[in-house]
Each structure stands twice: as structure tokens, then as C-alpha cells.
């Protein structure tokens, strides 16, 4: 007999020994043999008295749900943020996420790329997030910590193993650690907002090299790509990480499968909202993610900013997505529609395409001919290009911010030790 499922029986024995003994004595006097008891199943015997309140309810039903809190800026939301929140959720039953205010980010790190509204949409769209607190402080003050414990019923405060220091050099989570209510998770290697900003900034450096070249001599083969290569993603994709992000479930036999495809580069609030609208049209949302080569052909040589596996994880982390095709074809063919039993193909009104790329055929010609294609009004006009333009327009501020963050990240990696988990 499983202990977890029957331990409440023995609680009844300890709490009411005389009553339980009387019941057993009565059973013996009535001539109920051991074989008869086993015939009706001893494990079912106490249920005859559960309605009388003799035995206490199962412990698991009364177990308090553990609420954990994790905060962050979540600027240029990426799969590293998503994986951190996935790990945090695994430490409790309910995950509450604090999104740091614009003012606090400016004071402690420099100007954010995304607005508070955009960052809230991204965090709320993650499958592991249960509640969101807007305008959270950058540092865990005593007042805010008491608010978390008393008003929001938080049991533990979570942060990664990388240090989070205030401008004065003190630990932003010192009070939580002192209170004994702090837990640590493993940082996701290979990506950071600083790294992504660096990838974008290096494209402007490449353009400067080419624009300033007078043409009197050949451009060195590595000169135009030197900056770009220094910010190549260091992420090493593994099957385990994909499984951790995946729902692990396919559509039901009669499910209405909706398909939407795209680059989903620099996953932003516009992506979240169009995926939400697409999911509302069916039971199962399948997302096709184009290869790096296709994205580069359609958008230009500096795209994608994030490579295929990085983009796939960001999309998989979205609560509205059920499954992804990693490396989806540009054209939605009849074979793709049949293979995945697609009922509807949708596309947003806000989309990006390089004007200089070859026209080619309509990638949605087949679903249109089949009468299963629909255009969706994009709820937001934000695009990957508009996000990169914000950074390029404020080039000096982000270059200065990145230089400081790069030094702190180098120090982290120089002193890095193995941390189990994740």
C-alpha cells in the first residue's frame, strides 16, 4: 500500500486510538476474518467512516501552495529570461514576477529599450508565470520585502547565481538572504540582454567600416565581419532544453490546428499579441519558425539577430503556443498542411520583408486556394526592425551601458564555478 496515499489512515489511528480499537474489536466480534477484510480491501475500509469525520483529510489536499517571487528588468526578453522563470516556477507552485520600473532601470543600468507596457506583455505571455507585479523596485528593500511576504504571501525570493549589485556595490538581495527566504537558480549561459544589444550595435560598426572605405583598395575579408563575429551567439542548444520548454503534447484527433509562421526574431510584445489572437481561432497553435538562411534572404544580411534555436525557445516559452516547427519552409505547401492536419493558416498585417529581396511566389498561395487562409490584424505595430532602430538611435547611451555590463559579465565568467540544477 502506497504510504503517501494511505498515511492519513495511520493519522487516524494515532489521533483516535480508542475509537479505532473499538471498530476493530466490533469487526472481530462480528466474525469478519482477515481474508474477508482483504477481500473488501483494507485500504477502502476507512473510507466507510470518512463521511463521519473520524479520519482527517489527506495531507496533500491541505498542503499550502508555495508562492515564489522573481524580479527583473526583462528588457529585450530572451530565452535566458524564460529559462530563469521556468526554474523559479519549479521551486514552488505559483510564480509571481516583478517587472522593474523604467525609472529604476535608468537609475541602476541605463535606459531600457522596451517600455513597461511592452515588458509586461512579454512577461505575462510566458507559460510559467502566474501573476505579475508592475513597477517593482530594483533592490529588495525591507518595505517591499514585507509587502511580498504579507500582502502577496510570498514564501521565497528567487534570483540567479550571477551577482546583482547596486551602484554602491551592495547585494540587491541581501535582505532576502538575511531573512532566510532566498533561493538561487542557475544562470542560462550564452545569452544576455547586453549580448543582444552588442549584436545589434556591431551592425552599425560594420556599416561604418564599409561607408568610410574609399574604395582605393580591397576591403579586408574579415574587416566587415569582425564586429559581427565578436557577438556570435554562444548558446549551445541541447535536446534537454527543448524538452524543458515543450508542452510535450500533440493535438487531439478532432482538434482545430491553426498555423502561423515567421522569423520571430528578437521576440517582442507584437509577437505575443499576434500569437494570442491566432490561438483564439482554434484548439492547437502550431508555429513555423523560418531558418536563418530564409530570414537573411528576406530581411537582409544582418538578420536574424537571434539564431534558429534561440528563436525557437522564445516562441516555445509563450503560453499560447502548443508546438513549433524548427526550420519551417518559406512556402506553406499542401504536404505541410496534410502532415500536421492544419485547419487554418494565418498571418499578421504587420510583417517585415526586405524590399530588395526577390519577389518570388506567394508563400500562402496553397492555403489561399484551399480557402483556409486568413489575415489577422496585428494588435501592435512593433517590429524587430523598430526595436533595433531604438538602440541604434540611442547608440552612445547603449554603447556606454554595454561597456559597463561587459566588464561585469567578464568578471562573472572569470570567477564562475559550476552550479547544479536547471
Question: How would you sum up this structure, described in words?
Answer:
The protein is of the alpha/beta class and 422 residues long. It is 42% helix and 14% strand. Helix 13 links the parallel strand 6 and strand 7. The longest helix has 20 residues. The relative contact order is 0.11.
Give the helices and strands, then pairings:
Elements: H1 3-15, H2 17-29, H3 34-40, H4 59-62, E1 67-72, H5 79-90, E2 94-100, H6 102-108, H7 116-124, E3 131-136, H8 142-150, E4 156-160, H9 174-178, E5 182-185, H10 193-211, H11 226-230, H12 239-245, E6 257-262, H13 269-279, E7 284-290, H14 292-299, H15 308-316, E8 323-328, H16 334-339, E9 342-348, H17 365-369, E10 373-376, H18 384-393, H19 395-414
Parallel strand pairs: 1-2, 1-4, 2-3, 4-5, 6-7, 6-9, 7-8, 9-10
Helix pairs in contact: 1-2, 10-19
Quickly list its features:
422 residues, alpha/beta, five-stranded parallel β-sheet, nucleotidyltransferase, Rossmann-like_a/b/a_fold
Write a brief structural summary.
42% of the residues lie in helices and 14% in strands. It has 422 residues and is an alpha/beta fold.
Q: Mean pLDDT, rounded to whole units?
A: 80
Instruction: Please give the radius of gyration in angstroms.
Output: 28 Å
How much β-strand is present in the residues?
5-15%
Please list the strands of the largest sheet in the order they lie side by side: 3-2-1-4-5
Amino acid at each position: 500500500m502506497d504510504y503517501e496515499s494511505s498515511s492519513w489512515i495511520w493519522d487516524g489511528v494515532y489521533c483516535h486510538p480508542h475509537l479505532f480499537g473499538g471498530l476493530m474489536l466490533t469487526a472481530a466480534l462480528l466474525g469478519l476474518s482477515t481474508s474477508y477484510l482483504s477481500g473488501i480491501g483494507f485500504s477502502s475500509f476507512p473510507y466507510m467512516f470518512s463521511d463521519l469525520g473520524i479520519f482527517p483529510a489527506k495531507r496533500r489536499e491541505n498542503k499550502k501552495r508555495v508562492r515564489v517571487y522573481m524580479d527583473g528588468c526583462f528588457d529585450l526578453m530572451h530565452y535566458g529570461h524564460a529559462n530563469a522563470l521556468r526554474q523559479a516556477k519549479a521551486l514552488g507552485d505559483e510564480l509571481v514576477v516583478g517587472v522593474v520600473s523604467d525609472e529604476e532601470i535608468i537609475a541602476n543600468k541605463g535606459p531600457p529599450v522596451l517600455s513597461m507596457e511592452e515588458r509586461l506583455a512579454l512577461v505575462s505571455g510566458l507559460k510559467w508565470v502566474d501573476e505579475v507585479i508592475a513597477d517593482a523596485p530594483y533592490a529588495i528593500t525591507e518595505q517591499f520585502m514585507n509587502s511580498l511576504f504579507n500582502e502577496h504571501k510570498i514564501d521565497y525570493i528567487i534570483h540567479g547565481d550571477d551577482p546583482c549589485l547596486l551602484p554602491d556595490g551592495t547585494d540587491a538581495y541581501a535582505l532576502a538572504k538575511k531573512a532566510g527566504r532566498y533561493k538561487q537558480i542557475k544562470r542560462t549561459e550564452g545569452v544576455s540582454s547586453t549580448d543582444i544589444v552588442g549584436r545589434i550595435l556591431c551592425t552599425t560598426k560594420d556599416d561604418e567600416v564599409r561607408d568610410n572605405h574609399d574604395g582605393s583598395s580591397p576591403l579586408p575579408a574579415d574587416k566587415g565581419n569582425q564586429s559581427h563575429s565578436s557577438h556570435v551567439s554562444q548558446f549551445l542548444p541541447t535536446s534537454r532544453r527543448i524538452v524543458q520548454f515543450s508542452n510535450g503534447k500533440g493535438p487531439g484527433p478532432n482538434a482545430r490546428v491553426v498555423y502561423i509562421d515567421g522569423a520571430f526574431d528578437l521576440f517582442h510584445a507584437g509577437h505575443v499579441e499576434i500569437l494570442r489572437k491566432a490561438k483564439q481561432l482554434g484548439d492547437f497553435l502550431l508555429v513555423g519558425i523560418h531558418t536563418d538562411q530564409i530570414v537573411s534572404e528576406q530581411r537582409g544580411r544582418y538578420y536574424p539577430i537571434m539564431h534558429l534555436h534561440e528563436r525557437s525557445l522564445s516562441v516555445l516559452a509563450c503560453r499560447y503556443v502548443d508546438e513549433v516547427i524548427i526550420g519551417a519552409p518559406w512556402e506553406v505547401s499542401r504536404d505541410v498542411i496534410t502532415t500536421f492536419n492544419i485547419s487554418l493558416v494565418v498571418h499578421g498585417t504587420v510583417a517585415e520583408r526586405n524590399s530588395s529581396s526577390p519577389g518570388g511566389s506567394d508563400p500562402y498561395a496553397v492555403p489561399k486556394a484551399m480557402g483556409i487562409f486568413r489575415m489577422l490584424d496585428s494588435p501592435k505595430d512593433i517590429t524587430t526592425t523598430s526595436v533595433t532602430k531604438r538602440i541604434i538611435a540611442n547608440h552612445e547611451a547603449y554603447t556606454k551601458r554595454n561597456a559597463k555590463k561587459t566588464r561585469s559579465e567578464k568578471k562573472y565568467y572569470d570567477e564562475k564555478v559550476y552550479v547544479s540544477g536547471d
